[in-house]
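Exercise: predict the structure of this protein bound to copper (II) ion.
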Amino acid sequence: MTQVNGFFKRLITACTLLAMPVLAWAQPADPKPWQLNMGRGVTSSSQHAYDAHMIAFWVCVVIGIAVFGAMFYAMFKFRKSKGAVAAQFSHNTTAEIIWTVIPVVILVIMAFPATKKLIAMYDTRDAEMTVKVTGYQWMWKYEYLGEDVEFTSRLAKQSDAFRQSKQVATVKDNPHYLLEVDNELVLPVNTKIRFVITADDVIHAWWVPALGWKQDAIPGIVNEAWTDIQTPGVYRGQCAELCGKDHGFMPIVVRAVSKEDFQKWLASKQPAPAPAPAAPVEAPAAPVEAPAAPATEAAPADAAPAAAGAAPQAAPSDESAPQAQA
Ligand SMILES: [Cu+2]
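Solution:
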């Protein structure tokens, strides 16, 4: 009997040791080599996914220990060399009901929090800003809706050159090989950001693991998703739908910055304010008055009556600039 107890102690120690890597709670946002558990990510969606995963994981651990424990206990305690004789029954209704009802109860208990989290994941209401993502063979286009900012984002030149050089990339020399882009998607932290996601040619999928979801980008269909990044940082992802020969070469890089830094960045990307387009229109209108200097100095109020055609253009962009900086 003491032998059996000793065996159980060893079994429990072995199981605990096997579980050790997943007990490391602090996970980086991006996957690391030899990382065993999924990451926590940096958004509420990714946190929800992580929590659901850990609940399911621990349920599996408890079931695994109970089932294998009972099996090994029976195999050693009732072994033939000890003179054990097998019972001859082949049916036990009570046991069958128990081992059917218990799993059903476990699944139902797990389904409630999972469903709640899924519903939250698809709730894109009350977003503070919207980014339109369009997949192309083989790059992404980002549009900050209502902000007059859009750009494409492709594999960074150094990654592309290295890939075509036939050299072998190492993590040390090329830490972000094939995971770097020319134009990063800059987003503010602690902001509910809605994404509308589509594609122009074939099906792609926009996926940044640290955000906690991936969403298909399908031509002719607009899918939705949202995020609320909690930690500033750089988060990398990839196209997750086989989309052609360069599917592996259209990475995604999200740079999450403070709200103030984001507004500064956005303003720097916005087209120049109204006076610039108003000036050339005004020039032919005022040749008698002559010099160009007062014309360019002129307030937009002057531009409006002078060039009726330029006024509608000048007005909205004039308004959008202070809004964006607010
Ligand atoms: Cu793709």
